[in-house]
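Consider the following assembly input.
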Amino acid sequence: MISSEPVRMKENRVNDFTVQIATINGSGSQSANQILVRTLFRMGIPVGGKNLFPSNIQGLPTWFTIRAHPEGFVGRKNEQDIVITLNPSTALSDQKFVSSNGLFLYNSECALPSHKMRSDIISISIPFRQLSQEATESVKARKLLQNMIYVGLIAQILQLKWEVLEQTVRDQLGNKAELIQSNLKAITIGLNWAKQNLPSEFLNKFTAKEVPEGNDQYVLIDGNTTAALGLIYGGCTFASWYPITPSSSVMENLAGFSQKWRKDKAGHSTLAIIQAEDELAAVAMALGAGWTGARAVTATSGPGLSLMAETAGLAYYAEIPLVIWEVQRAGPSTGLPTRTQQSDVLFAAKLSHGDSKHILLFPSNPEEHFSFGQVAFDLAETLQTLVIVMSDLDLGMNFHRSKKWPYPTQPYARGKVLSADELTLRGKFERYSDVDNDGRTYRTLPGTEHPLAAYFTRGTGHDEQSRYSEDPEVYRTNLDRLNKKWENAKKWVPQPQISQTHDTDSAILCYGSTDIIINEVLNLLAQQNLKMNSICLKSYPFPRSVEEFISQHQTIYVVEQNRDAQMKTLLTEEYPQYTTRFKSILCYDGWPITAHFVTQNIFPKKGI
Amino acid sequence: MIKQKSEASIESTSSESTQIIKSNLNKINLSQSDYVGGKSTLCTGCGHDSVTQQIIKAYFQSGVNPFQVVKISGIGCSSKTPAYLMNQAHGFNTIHGRMAPIATGVKVANHHLQILGISGDGDTASIGLGSFIHMIRRNLPIIYIVENNGVYGLTKGQFSATADAESIKKGGERNLFTAIDLCSLALELGCSFVARSFSGDSKQLVPLIDAAIRHNGTALIDVISPCITFANHEGSTKSYDAVKSHNHHLQELGFVQPQEPLLVDYEEGSYQTVKLVDGSVLILKKIESHLHDITDLQAAKNALNNSKQKNEILTGLFYWNQNCTHLIDRLHLSSTPLVQLTEKELRPKEEDFHQTLSQWK
């Protein structure tokens, strides 16, 4: 059963390990994987889980990776300490993920020629089919229960706390007693098999040790779920969308939360959600609602964003509040719909023809996916423009550990809207007149009962009263005012997160999901006596503090998940005087970036 | 010949309302000049300008509050016209083909608003066809007027998707492809109000708009509106002459406002009156031996098909389903418009927040 010589066991690694499970898409492994990652989380261990899945409903290979780390470094790692392969088609190649001295548990139905087996790892064949036959007589259920068998194997190897595991299974499967019993039985079969068949030293290699109250102040959740909740708390009243991976679950979760918390006393909805015929219509509906005074959002991903370009320009030029929640995937074109990237940054920043530019927000954890819901609406209404929230598949669909955040109490910022009474007081209203000299003008909402209220919105050239105009002076003055508003926006957008604890002239710059690995990167560098400061951008345009930080460092490594250094392009455009200070580190294979990828790029020869 | 007063008219012929009409004010004390807009920049003689005048007349007569109206359009000559009417209503000249979804957002955000959409054949039948179809599917409450001339006027005379096959362009080129008939398409989709008229026929068009104002759902009025510059020549099937000689009325239409006396002088059995909730009455008079039943969807489809075979342009009210369920009903929205909801009503309670977070483990 053990196909290679047992390797001498090294130190026992407590709460510091990676697990990767290779299955076939559509085989029902999702709940097994969630049970594992949630059990570890409930034991108080810092943990994260990533689903590396195909663009397919059934049949193609899929992987789930779990990483536990006592200091919370739970970004993806290439080396996996425990690899479980149920999928014969990937078994051979899955070996390459196993860390030296790691465990490789493969389905006995995978025909693996011995000469192709690695000798530096421990490979064990697991009779999944036979074990699942013990678990149930139902042929149909066997396939599903194979997943619970590996839960049992891992439970035994890591010594998961049974009470926690059992409760997690119950919570995961709901109130179905029979289902819970059969799943627990399959887990026990896997657990017992491991107990009886794996060498005892094997069992002490990687251990999950309970940390009392370790995660009491944390949640384990995906960004798309907290985004939906954040939109609810942020006052969203209108959402239109067209299904697209990986953003669909933002809207599906929004619909779920709306059922719970967005009913008035009569039981009627205070949030309208419309599934549109395409992204052209989805964004247009949200724009119409935003113009009317609703807090309106649409969610999409790259190809959908392409279709939204024309309306984005209208929102910018006619100054209409609108929020697009973008969950980036790997492009160009259809690209890799189920893999992650940050490759829409440049496109989103300048979305649409002409001199268009848009406020971008970069949440980098579940908490910010929540809080940026209200921030996006506040900015869209304060600045009367389009705000695009730039999430990505890794942030949106994977499990992240995030510190619990407080209940939001900040009042909604609704911007400059004149009521009928205010119109009477002012005695004058011009839609695009810069009366406060900050580039931000007043609007009235349709339905305002006042003879001064009405104006005619248009995407064509317009003067201060929103009348059609082709006058060169009027046109230029208006574009300049929009730029003035843009400059003022720098005061309103979220500030970067800066860690400037070292007296050093080098720093790492990240944004969005690359923030997940930054602490680990800094730690790895510190081990090589290289101290670096870091900055995590939260918005475009960049607030003044970004320039200040850049001016204080000679070398700034800009870490991004795209080929063309898109954020660096925006930075060099904004700060041409600092162009030579930026060094790009670019990961764009579709899988979430690792800390080692960054350090290897900083020290190509050291190999740390 | 008989003269008849309906029950509806008895209530509304009070001396007060008679006075209002006499003083040129409507029921909300506005004059027709309160419904006008900016000066048109379309070509002199453009059919669209006639349509603008009929819209102004109908909205004035019906006593619609302009503050509660949103005028909306896409891109094209027709889409400029909202600027030429009802200056006291908010207006939105949007982008090409997106009038329907933008109007959807407006109406859902504030369902108290009345939406007047004015689009063209390029905007509706080509670039916006998908959205047009889905708007009908959802039965968005909107008056959707298509000013249909079969050409792209602003880009100087290319055929549109409603141009008839074999019709001839100004330069002599023949149209190779069959026309999309927006009314047939709308009927096929179950549109709840479908009518066609001609820009030069105020006697027919004004009552149609009056009726559409009372409709709660998508009211499509396809108005053949000749382009004086690019499609008024021989060989064009949407020129003034072509429409006049091929126009066939399905019925004669009359509309009686609530405050007006209903005086009907048609022969018994030759007309139908549709009483509306606000007390107004739509009168449909038969033209040939058969009186078209506007509640019969299949009859409407047949009438259109027959007219096409006879090479006629059939105009009139084809179909009206007054008992339809519209988008706002189906969304089960709060009776308070979404835009008027406050933070207190929108942000869930603190205990719900903590409970949600505690489940994420």
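The mean pLDDT of chain B is 91. Ask yourself how this observation constrains the way the partners meet.
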